[in-house]
Design goal:
With 71 residues, the protein is of the alpha+beta class. The chain contains three helices and two strands. The protein has a two-stranded antiparallel sheet with strand order 1-2. β1 and β2 form a beta hairpin. The protein is elongated and about 50 Å long. The termini are far apart.
Amino acid sequence: MDITTVSPKFQVVIPKRVREQFGLSPWQTLQVIALPGRIELVPTQSPAAQRGFLPGKNTFQRELVAAEICT
C-alpha cells in the first residue's frame, strides 16, 4: 500500500509506482469521486481515446433514426 500526504495547499503527490501502473502523465485530468469513507481518483479519457473499447460490431443507429424522422 502506498501512502501520501496532503500539503498545506491541499495538494497530493501520486506515488511513482501508481503513476507508472496507470500510465499517468503531467496535466492529465482525474475525476474525483467522494464516497462514504474514501476518495477515489479516476483517470479521465477523451471520447476519441475511448472509441472502440467495447467488443463487437457497432450497432448504434443514430444516423438511420435521424434520416427516418426527416422523411
